Amino acid sequence: MSVVSEDLQPLTFDFVDDGLVPNSKLPFLVYKRAVDVDNDHPEKTIEGLFGANGWGAMWRNGVYDYLHYHATVHEVLGVISGNAIVRFGGDNGAELAIAAGDVAILPAGTGHQCLSSSTDFCVVGAYPPGPPMDLVRPTKEAHAKALKTIPQVKLPKTDPVLGENGPLVKLWK
Predict the structure, then answer these.
(1) Is 72 within 8 Å of 92 (Cβ atoms)?
(2) Which residues of 110-125 are buried (b: 16+ CB within 10 A; e: fewer)?
């Protein structure tokens, strides 16, 4: 079993539109110590969990050290190894410590930027079915366009950690 507990509840954060980073009316979610990654292949553990819950187009890397967001997709980040301080929500957002086994779920428009990380910091990123991921740097022009695309992004049918009955499904109505 890769999920630590079926009763797991995420932390929730609400970030406001700051004029450059639109963020979302949906809450940003973080599951702390959600996935047991104490094994020889933590990347496969997280990829298997996300895939089993219908999230795909996966990749492995860190989190960019510049502020950006995605205006056409929701994103999940599962920490495989190491730890980092990531600012979510743009310059006026929250600086959060994330570490191996944590999972962050970003609704479309949520700004994010890695401020510091251990040398072994790595995440699996994934997306629910839908359009391909876009990468948007905050500008007034990009913001205006994002305000039109973000409301069109479909809600995922499943929580990438706990599936069709997971907290995301209830919190993102």
Answers:
(1) no
(2) bbbbbeebeeebbbbb
Residue that has been written with the tokens 């992004």 in this structure: 153
Distance CA 30, CA 136 (A): 22
The token duo for 41 is: 């292949």
Tell me the C-alpha distance between 48 and 107, whole Å: 21
Provide the CA 63 distance to its chain's centre, in angstroms.
10
What's the one-letter identity of residue 80? Answer: I
Q: In this predicted model, what pLDDT tens digit does every residue of 94-115 receive, in sequence order?
A: 999 999 999 999 999 999 999 9
Answer whether 0.85 is exceeded by the pTM.
yes
- The count of residues in the chain is 173
Residue among 112, 96, 105, 94 at smallest CA distance from 21: 112
Contact 60, 43 (CB under 8 A): yes
CA proximity to 161, closest of 80, 105, 122: 105
The stretches of the chain forming alpha helices (DSSP H) are: 42-52, 140-149, 167-171
